[in-house]
Amino acid sequence: MSTVSSITGERLKIERSGRLVLDIPQVQLGQFKSTAIVGPNGAGKSLLVKSLSALLVPDSGVIKWNSTPADNNRRSRVGLLLQRPVLLNRSALKNLTYALRAAGVDRQQAGEQARMALETAGLGAVVDVSAQRLSGGEQQRLALARALALKPDMLFLDEATANVDPASTQAIEEQLKRAVNDGLTIVFVSHDMGQVKRMADEVILMHQGQIVEQSSRVDFFEHTVNPITRAWLAGEILL
Amino acid sequence: MQSFSEAFFEALRLIVAFDGDLREIILLSLQVSLSAVIVASIVGLPAGAWLATTQSRLRPVILTIVSALMGLPPVVVGLVVYLLLSNAGALGPLQLLYTPTAMIIAQSILITPIIIALTRETLADLYLQYREQLSLLGVRSTALIKTLLWEGRRGLMTALLAGFGRAIAEVGAVIIVGGNINHVTRVMTTTIALETSKGNLSLALGLGIVLVLIALLVNAAVLTLGSYGRPSEKRSS
């Protein structure tokens, strides 16, 4: 299975109740190892990451993983971590082995890889604890461990740290940095500008379903000439 | 004709002594109804799970049919099964009429729609919750249905118990296809009907008390499982 090193979207449009909520002529990801997508609520950030990760089929447009259309045969190559972790009603270990088995890993290897992934995520102490009984932060770390255990080439994160405490946020960021150093490309949606500055190499600003600016972190924060970006960075409310 | 108090105390005596006839009838009732629940589950659980997850255009039609079948009059089911199993019927050569198997068939037909409908209801909510994540993990079709059935197992016990409750309390269909033959197809409900008409109230009342106790136990089990299924307290961060 070929590595997915770039994702492009062309002429993406999504309508909801007769209103165009996503309208993107072209977007390309993968040139930077870590891209942040920012913007006000309702800007279309979640729709964009769900479309690019092939969880959602846009009303029109084409998504390509490398140069070919996104397909389910490469499902495990591109992951998405949702804002609210969805975990099965079984132990932390079994949540991971389930995901690995679904990806075609044999039973014994799945067990070993799952234990290793939990240890790496700092969840070694809760291996046999029901996922439903973990704290919110632990659940999100478990969901991240599950996503990373599948060894994706590219991982989207939709406000993955929005509902967790600062310690869990730090643990998640460290886990992600290690994964990026090991070759993973991440694209994360965030409202936390501090996190964007800490984690992103590239920033995309979205507003009213469109991409307003896509540039390197340095250009975005220090050299932007885009009036909407400047207003956003100045803390103004974008309407 | 016994007075009510005489009949009541005689009924209690029969229960406490676990009278042979009483025991035989109770065991046959449990055997028939539990078998019917197993048969109905084999069909109803996957069918309900499929209905909870499918986008098929036939879904609303099937849901309407299932809802209609939930209200099937038991005597009509008994009549149809009787016609199928009688010597002139399509399944006549199997010689199943007036056997416990015939009663199991009739009860299975009656409770399968209930199990399908309750399974669909339980798993539809669960599917909404898990749909995106399972899709991201590449889980589809059979694996998806298996996962939902396992994840919803506690809620589904309620569906099975509801089916059991309907089956064990059923009288119209089993009396037609079972014939209420002593020591062969006589179950609690048919015995109650027969013994009451004969004026033998003690046995009828004894079985009635057992039936009510079973109904109470089933309801208690449903309530316990319902509360057990709720998420327990989370660990602190």
Describe, in plain words, how this protein is organized in 3D:
The complex is a heterodimer of chains A (239) and B (237). Chain A has 239 residues and is α/β, with parallel strands linked by helices. Chain A has a domain at 7-84 and 154-233: Rossmann fold. Chain A contains 8 helices and 10 strands. A 6-stranded mixed beta sheet of chain A has the order 6-7-8-3-9-10, with helices on both faces. In chain A, helix 2 (92-102) crosses helix 3 (107-120), helix 3 (107-120) packs across helix 4 (136-149) and helix 4 (136-149) runs parallel beside helix 5. Chain A is globular. By secondary structure, chain B is mostly helical. Chain B contains 10 helices and no strands. The longest helix of chain B is centred in the middle third of the chain and has 37 residues, at 100-136. In chain B, helix 3 runs antiparallel to helix 5. Chain B has one domain (4-228): MetI-like (MetI-like fold). Chain B has helices spanning 4-17, 20-53, 59-70, 74-85, 100-136, 141-151, 153-168, 172-178, 188-198, 201-228. Chain B is globular. Chain A binds chain B through residues 53, 55, 72, 75-76, 79-80, 82, 86, 88-89, 98-99, 102-103, 129-130, 132-138, 150, 164-165, 167-168, and chain B through 129-130, 132-133, 135-139, 143, 147, 151, 231-237.
Determine Rg of chain B (CA atoms, Å): 21 Å
Number of helices of chain A: 8
Q: Using only CA atoms, what is the Rg of chain A?
A: 18 Å
Helix content of chain B: over 70%
